[in-house]
Design brief:
The chain is α/β, with parallel strands linked by helices. Helices cover 40% and strands 15% of the residues. Helix 2 (60-70) packs parallel to helix 4 (91-112) and helix 6 runs parallel beside helix 8 (249-259). The structure holds NADP nicotinamide-adenine-dinucleotide phosphate (NAP) and ligand F7E. Ligand F7E binds next to helix 6.
Length: 337
Amino acid sequence: MPVALVTGITGQDGSYLAEHLLAQGYRVIGVSRRTSTDVGSRIEHIRADIEVASADLLDQTSLLTLVQRYQPDEVYNLAAQSFVPTSWAQPVLTGEFTALGVTRLLEAVRVAAPEARFYQASSSEMFGKVQEVPQTERTPFYPRSPYGVSKLYGHWITVNYRESYGMHACSGILFNHESERRGLEFVTRKISYGVALISHGARRELRLGNLDAERDWGHAADYVRAMHMMLQRDSPRDYVISTGETHSVREFAELAFRCAGLDWEEFVQVDPTLKRPAEVDQLVGDPRLANEELGWRPTITFPQLVERMVESDLAIVRDEMARGVIRREEPGSRFPG
Ligand code: NAP
Ligand code: F7E
């Protein structure tokens, strides 16, 4: 039974990747840091099928001990401080997790399991102020946030360990991928959950920032398949993983409200305080290399993604209201930014 070590197991991608690897017959070791509250809701349904080990990207010894103990065949580094606005509020911490954390894990693998195959979760945020459209594996990078800069470090250190030590290390340059399990602070889930709250009468408005930003949005379940496919290649190489389509935040909102039979313009308020110090205006990836060499293709379309997220949040909010977790909106209160 091949052994896969997955950091960031409690995150969106960690949960989908674990499901996929279990279906492929792997022994899955999920890595979680110690927290004072339970962060395991996304993996509750597979908790009996995986093992969860404790380690932190900030702690070199914990990572080395982990790799020594489990001797993984494949290591997927999904852990990161992944929310772009927080990277301006906590730039040093973001660099520690999202940049140097990659070196710490690579060092642990180099020392304790050098034959293991290593996947780094790189990001389209590295393209930032885009230098060409669409973006490919050869497009120059121009990150626009401390998060993007940190991911770029993680990307190049992975290339460097591949070239310096001959390790089977590669990066997936993944464009935005969302799901019913997306964190509530990211714009797609903020919208789908906001639509559900409004639809059930628990809120009267949804405050958003830049409606003109355009993203290449896919579904996380499709994207984790690409991560696994990349590690099955004999020679490691980096790939852009995207749908090749771009849509604005406005379009996402319009469609999401329509899924619930509502007109977005009646409920969405633009809040300038939610705009970013430096924006990534438009992202659209060219996934042809992954199509051709990996045989990877997304299966969930943009309208299906939006519909799935809205349907899921309508059910979640219905249940939360039935349990009294959400109260109907008091007059004058506002949806939190
Ligand atoms: P996510 O939901 O924010 O999950 C991040 C994970 O990292 C969580 O499990 C979190 O654990 C863990 N983590 C954070 N700091 C850690 C630390 N110091 N030590 C150990 N674990 C730590 O992110 P995601 O959407 O699943 O994304 C997965 C990866 O892909 C991230 O690296 C992200 O930057 C990258 N990425 C995401 C996208 C996207 O559109 N989703 C696109 C490109 C790249 P806690 O539960 O304890 O907080
Ligand atoms: O923002 C705009 C915002 O926070 C998307 C992460 O997974 O993907 C993600 O980063 C766009 C931006 O994701 C609101 O200004 C408008 O232009 O959902 P987001 P992101 O910043 O693209 C990349 C690939 C990653 O690697 C990251 O880890 O939407 N926007 N109004 C808003 N965004 C938020 N969050 N909230 C708003 O109210």
